[in-house]
């Protein structure tokens, strides 16, 4: 136990685990209710909500370890879009909601943990940090939702580039990326690109290679213990670094990416 943890344990009370579990259960229950009673709008069935939450629960500690040791955070945005696109195709809103609950939940959890880590170094009481996080989240949800509804009501042709003036600042580029991703992965679907209906099915083998690669490094480090450099090979970082490659640029244009799937504001109920 490091000195920071000893000081915190000596002077402050820990946050009880049931505080976190209560929020988790309430949020999942609300999302399931919404998916059942407003299914025509969100399109995502109740089992999709549970599957997305399961993905977030499983991957949060795994990616958390990678972030803690390398400061690199592999994203689950494409993975979640890929999974629900196969299981529940031709439903773009369901695809977006599944990504929000499976991917954004994980990123928010890691951000929450990072704040607690900062609080550990700054000697902020854990319960005070917890309440600040919860209240901040509630305020943010109310303000963001209210602002979004106000903009949609007050700004004519919001996000519609075909009707907005050329110099308008209301083109919503991040929202458009989110929409494009829903069309690519939800409406078109991965089966038409990486499945039997597509031409890139062999790319799926890289899922297996990515899962095996760290195990091969571990075997090599055990087989050649004198070679200390082998244990420094970190495939999640190597493969994740490809996300930093320059994007494809449209021919004859000064910018703009093709097929970007960056996360943006979401239309789904907050989690």
Automatic annotation (TrEMBL):
Q: Which named protein is this?
A: Uncharacterized protein
Question: Topology versus the membrane, per the UniProt entry?
Answer: Multi-pass membrane protein
Record PANTHER family: ISP4 LIKE PROTEIN
**Compartment(s) of residence:** Membrane
Where it mainly occurs, coarsely classed, is membrane
Q: Which residues cross the membrane?
A: 18-38, 44-68, 130-152, 203-221
Name the Gene Ontology biological process terms: protein transport
A molecular function annotated in GO for this UniProt entry is:
oligopeptide transmembrane transporter activity
* Source organism: Brassica oleracea var. oleracea
């Amino acid at each position: 136990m490091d000195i920071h943890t000893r000081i915190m344990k000596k002077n402050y009370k820990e946050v009880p685990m049931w505080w976190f579990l209560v929020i988790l259960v309430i949020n999942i229950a609300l999302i399931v209710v919404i998916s059942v009673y407003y299914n025509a709008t969100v399109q995502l069935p109740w089992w999709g909500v549970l599957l997305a939450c399961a993905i977030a629960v499983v991957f949060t500690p795994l990616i958390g370890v990678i972030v803690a040791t390398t400061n690199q955070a592999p994203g689950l945005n494409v993975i979640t879009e890929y999974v629900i696109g196969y299981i529940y195709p031709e439903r773009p809103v369901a695809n977006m909601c599944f990504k929000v609950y499976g991917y954004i939940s994980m990123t928010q959890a890691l951000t929450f943990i990072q704040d607690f880590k900062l609080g550990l170094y700054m000697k902020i009481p854990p319960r005070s940090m917890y309440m600040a996080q919860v209240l901040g989240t509630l305020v943010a949800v109310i303000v963001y939702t209210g602002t979004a509804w106000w903009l949609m009501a007050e700004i004519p042709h919001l996000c519609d580039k075909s009707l907005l003036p050329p110099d308008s600042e209301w083109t919503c580029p991040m929202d458009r990326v989110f929409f494009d991703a829903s069309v690519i992965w939800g409406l078109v679907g991965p089966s038409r690109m990486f499945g039997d209906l597509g031409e890139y099915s062999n790319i799926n083998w890289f899922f297996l290679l990515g899962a095996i690669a760290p195990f091969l490094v571990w075997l090599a480090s055990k087989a050649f213990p004198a070679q200390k450099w082998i244990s420094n090979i970190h495939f999640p970082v190597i493969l994740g670094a490809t996300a930093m490659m320059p994007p494809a640029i449209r021919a004859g244009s000064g910018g703009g990416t093709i097929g970007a799937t960056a996360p943006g504001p979401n239309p789904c109920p907050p989690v």
